[in-house]
Amino acid sequence: MKNTYFKRWLAFAVSGLSLTGFGLSLLGESIIAKYEKRPWFWLGTFSLIVINSGISLIGKAVTYRTRLDLEE
């Protein structure tokens, strides 16, 4: 069971951190678009969705890491 928790923790942690970073990049692009008076609303909205998804996956990774640590 420890191997399963480790694999899930690793998958959720890596994907969560990647999504959070990607969402922050999209947020920066939407800020630049707003400054340049280009359409920015949907890009900004999508960036917040991606950021929140990444944070959720990081939270799930923490639960798997806790389960892994409790089994040791």
Strand residue content: under 5%
The class by helix and strand makeup works out as: mainly alpha
**Contiguous runs where pLDDT drops below 50 for at least 5 residues:** none
- Strand elements, count: 0
Rg over CA atoms:
16 Å
Q: If helices are DSSP runs of H or I spanning 4 or more residues, what is the number of helices?
A: 2
Tertiary shape: rod-shaped
> Averaged pLDDT, please?
96
Keywords:
72 residues, mainly alpha, 90% helix, 0% strand
Explain this structure to me?
The mean pLDDT is 96. Helix 1 runs antiparallel to helix 2. The N and C termini lie close together (11 Å). The protein is built from 2 helices and no strands. The protein is mainly alpha-helical. It has helices at 2-35, 41-71. The longest helix is centred in the N-terminal third of the chain and has 34 residues, at 2-35.
Gist of the model:
With 72 residues, this protein is an all-alpha fold. It has helices at 2-35, 41-71.
Write the layout of secondary structure elements.
Elements: H1 2-35, H2 41-71
Helix pairs in contact: 1-2
